[in-house]
Amino acid sequence: MVNEVRQIRIMVSSTREDLIDYREAAAKIIEEIARNERNRFQILNTSMEDNTQLGVVESAIEASKRWVKEADWICVILGWNYGTVANSDASGVSITEWEYRHALELREEGANKSIFVFVARDLNSADPYREVDVGKRDLKDWLASPHAEQMKTFRTCACGNHATMFRNHADFCGQFEATLRDAVSRLVPNFPFKGGLAELLVRVKNDCRACVGAVQQLDVCKRIHDALHLFRLDVLRKLWEEDLPLWNKKPELTERELRMLATLGNSAGVLTNRLEEAAKGLDARHEDLRRIVSNVVEELERLWPRSELRSGNSTEITECVNSLASVVQEAFTDANRAMVEGKSALDANHAALVRHIGEHRQSHGLNEMENRLLDSELGQIDSNKQRLMEALASHDKWQRYHDRLEIIYTALGTPLFDRELGRFAKTKLPGLKTLVCDFRPNPSGEAHQSSSSTGQIAYELGQHANALECQPDEERFRAFHAPFDEMFFSVDRATLAEVGRAEERVKQFEIALEKVIQAGTS
After folding, report:
1. Of all helices (H) and strands (E), which one includes residue 76?
2. Contacts of 70 (CB under 8 A, 6+ apart)
3. Residue 468: which residues within 8 A CB-CB, separation 6 or more?
4. Residue 444's pLDDT is what?
5. Average pLDDT, stretch 87-91?
6. What is the DSSP letter of 309?
7. What is the pLDDT averaged over residues 449-477?
8. Using an 8 Å Cβ cutoff, are 82 and 18 in contact?
9. Residue 413: which region, alpha, beta or left (left: phi > 0; alpha: psi -120 to 50)?
10. Which residues of 67-80 are buried (b: 16+ CB within 10 A; e: fewer)?
11. Got the DSSP string for 367-404?
């Protein structure tokens, strides 16, 4: 079994005339990251500046095909210049668009390639592209360049979830560096199969596996929490806010209303399947959560029986909905509690790993290169763990506010409402306002183009919070509650992405560790 330093080949794809400043900046950033990560990876820039075509017989398309095939990461930068339209080999599209599409094709065929797209912000957006750096090329100068319609189509196509929008050259540099550093932080280096470091890793393999297991359980609990959150938003909210107020006014539901209920049951069934599938991954530490998930499934089957038609009695249906809502809320809170416990378990397991590495490090006689690799990897593990811990801690704070607001919401129309709302406005609302102000969506936690909408929701929530604090009544509470739900959903999405990011990395770490263990026993 041969062991080599892990290599990352990065290709920058763009037009040259308009984006030369951007390409040069990207090259410097790649060089700096390569220098910082030299103990863990060999990072190479394989862009056109550092490559040449293989003789006169290799066309531009053939050279691009080779560069894209060899690259691990393809970074596409788009302004408004479509660039040179290639020959028939590229189906009449520009070289840049052909490189982008070819990278997508290779990835769909199973190639391990990451594609990062950086696009100048649309001029009609709320935060448009506007070059402010003196001496930098203004990309708007190419708005009227040839093939403008093709470029418009290409920009639209490329602005998917993997696209980052930039306002100017300086913003691009910041976004490009943050994106690549984040991508590098997700990777695990190749560990040596022999020597002191390999022996040390085998020695602490149980500690490593405990950390991996803790992150994987966090991922399971978060996916359960996510399925429950979607169920609350997509099923229960409609029942509570739209259907039950009407159904409670009549003794029986009409056939049309029963069909609507059955259709909602189809959506509930999809989410139930997700819930049950995720719960299979729970270990013995989370038996309470497993049981409460089973209770949710049972309540769902009461409301939407599988083998018989639902009766149209509105009182019975209301009771089923309320019972289901109660057990879903219990499971929702319990899933968050399991995540908090998982956070503590990960912290303890990580501390044990670091302690045991320190205890055994000297006895295994690591050389200078091995020490540098170990220190770099431990630093990255600690940084990733801290990032995950912060996301989970923030999520727990939002969950606690959510649970308190649910108590107030269920008290609507009762004498308890005014008292509970007044107490919340006085004791909890100031802290929630601070949490809203401090919220910053993580680039890996949600699509970059949606961060502006999250900012708008946060602004609206802050305004409604101020109004509720001044006058806590039902009208202002209802106006406040809707953007809070939207904001909490954004927090949930960001946390799910952060936990998924951590789970993806520990899975890589587990594979790398097993290779070292297998090499030592072969």
Report:
1. strand 73-78
2. 9, 11, 46
3. 425, 429, 476, 477, 479, 480
4. 44
5. 63
6. P
7. 87
8. no
9. left
10. bbeebbbbbbbbbb
11. -HHHHHHHHHHHHHHHHHHHHHHHHHHHHHHHHHHHHH
φ and ψ at residue 13, rounded to 5 degrees = -115, 125
Q: By C-alpha distance, which of 73, 74, 104 is closest to 186?
A: 73
What is the reported pLDDT for 56? 46
Q: Which amino acid is at 358?
A: G
At 160 the pLDDT is: 73
Q: Which amino acid is present at 144? A: A
In one-letter notation, the amino acid at residue 338 is A
Instruction: Tell me, letter by letter, the H, E, C secondary structure of 115-140.
Output: EEEEEECCCCCCCCCCCCCCCCCCHH
Tell me the DSSP string of 401-436: HHHHHHHHHHTTTSTHHHHHHHHHHHHTHHHHHHHH
Distance between CA atoms of residues 456 and 462, nearest Å? 10
Cα 61 from chain centroid?
34
Q: What is the pLDDT of residues 28-71, one digit of tens each?
A: 999 999 999 999 999 999 876 555 544 444 467 788 888 999 99
Q: How many residues does the chain have?
A: 522
DSSP letter at 450 equals: G
E-state strands within 167-248 = none
Backbone torsions φ then ψ of 73, nearest 5 degrees: -125, 135
> Among 380, 257, 399, 259, which Cα is nearest to 314's?
257
Residue 161's pLDDT band, with cuts at 50, 70 and 90, is low
Helices (H), 447-473: 451-470
Average pLDDT, the chain: 90
Q: Kindly write down the DSSP assignment for every residue of 135-166, as one continuous string.
A: TS--GGGGTTSTTHHHHHHHHHHH-STTEEEE
Considering only CA atoms, which of 504, 495, 37 is closest in space to residue 224?
495
pTM score of the predicted model? 0.88
Rounded to the nearest 10°, the torsion over CA 64, 67, 71, 74 is -30
The pLDDT tens digits for 181-234 are 999 999 999 999 999 999 999 999 999 999 999 999 999 999 999 999 999 988
Give the mean pLDDT of 240-249: 85
Sequence letter at residue 440: R
What single-letter amino acid sits at 431? G
pLDDT digits over 480-503, tens only? 999 999 999 999 999 999 999 999
